[in-house]
Amino acid sequence: MELFEAIYRRRDVRDFGPDQIPRKTLLKILDAAHHAGSVGLMQPWNFTVIQAPASQAAIVEIVAEENLKAAKDYHGEDREKYLSLHLEAIHTAPVHIAVTCDSQRGGLQVVGRNTMPETDLYSTCCAIQNLWLAARAEGIGMCWVSLIDPERVKQILGIPDEITLVGYLCLGIPESFDERPHLERQGWKERAPLEDVLFFESWGQQNAIDSPDTESSPLTKEGLRGVTSP
Amino acid sequence: MELFEAIYRRRDVRDFGPDQIPRKTLLKILDAAHHAGSVGLMQPWNFTVIQAPASQAAIVEIVAEENLKAAKDYHGEDREKYLSLHLEAIHTAPVHIAVTCDSQRGGLQVVGRNTMPETDLYSTCCAIQNLWLAARAEGIGMCWVSLIDPERVKQILGIPDEITLVGYLCLGIPESFDERPHLERQGWKERAPLEDVLFFESWGQQNAIDSPDTESSPLTKEGLRGVTSP
To answer: In what order do the strands lie in the sheet with A45-50?
Structure first.
């Protein structure tokens, strides 16, 4: 699959069909994740693949509990709408992957990590995004499960205290990939236009300042039309 | 460009040729970034594109200072080797992009963010990885500059206190893309084999446990051969 197609058609998938993920495909996806860049080539990540039904069930239970706790923050119609999002619908995923970050990997002197130690976590997220896109290209759906108590999950998987659980991912083969994000389809929230998140030269400056040597089409809100995706 | 090719051929680029990035290309790359997934469709990111020579020079100066500070942690030959990495070689990049995260976007109730508030930063990193891959596919080189004092950069760009600078990116058109990562080519560090970062079922378990209903090729170290990339 072409890169931009994978980017635009990637979805947070929460409904999985009964088919297993072929092992070669799973390894191909994991290898793509492992080929993310990392600060100082630190490669701080580990991928723990969970297929044992008992572990999966224990973690699905944690997600269901956290989802019900979160629902308490909503009231009346909002609560019904929240529960209808079915955020907990991950119990059919045949493969779970816990993505962790070891902040001590590479020792104390990791090139480029002096001023922003958190770049190890950021590198791990880049690996997850590679994994997500690679899954999409292989027809595998993925859901990043964020409604989770990371310490409880770490306990189930025997992950040491000093290791950070960055992402808990569920993968499987979906019936189909939605055209639009789940929350958009459910009428919960929409994607903003690119121009709303784009500044030029300094914070809050929404139009590019034109200088004589720039191209004829200025980087303005209007200039964005036709460039952005469906 | 095909997704896996973009993933395997993405590099941290530090040498840029004199050509400008066409505006359409820049916007295409930014739109790809904006199409990352985000917790609760929060889209917490902003992209501030910096092309003004004065701002660029001020930030290049910060990087050079931090690089010299970092060099003090190395001694003798190590120090010479460190300095030979030319981490500060970003002054030729025609485009800088500051990628920030607004942790308050979407208000207090962001779906899925109850237990792991840091997922907003993680979503922003996913956007950066999209940007990096999209740049690669368009023949644009990118460098994630991590040797930076984020507060000083925020001051130069007028970024408010409550906004987090996640990544400072330099982009341009490179002479070529290296086959291997910069630090690997310089003999500083190598990419680990995938098997070193892969566990099955629980932390530290390097071989998959086979059950009668799994496929014939077990998920073992040996099973990995031939699947992984060049």
So the answer is: A141-145, A163-172, A95-102, A45-50, B198-200
